[in-house]
Description:
Elements: H1 3-35, H2 42-78, H3 93-98, H4 106-117
Helix pairs in contact: 1-2
Amino acid sequence: MTQKELEHFQQKLISLADKIKLNIQNAKDKIEQMRNQNPTDEGDYALLTNDSSIEQALIEKQVKELKEVEEALEKIKKGTYGICEMCEDKIGVDRLSIKPFAKYCITCREIVEKSKIN
């Protein structure tokens, strides 16, 4: 990978991390707003509880993704970015363009996904 490509991915990852942090904060703010509401009946209470659960699940997913983005940024610093964690081959630039925090090449990703199913 060229230095220019590496810098491109670093900027892409930083921008993505900022976006995720904003999403997490917005979801936390929304949950806090929901907690401050006083439901008037069981239907309102159920709706608030459901919405809160959905927001919490989204936060958990975003926190996990943020961790992966931060790990990718750390790999750039260490000089190991774009290397598959399983086979240690290069991860294709096309794959990194779609998912800049990818840990695995396409082949190994399929193996990991199949092993999660079983």
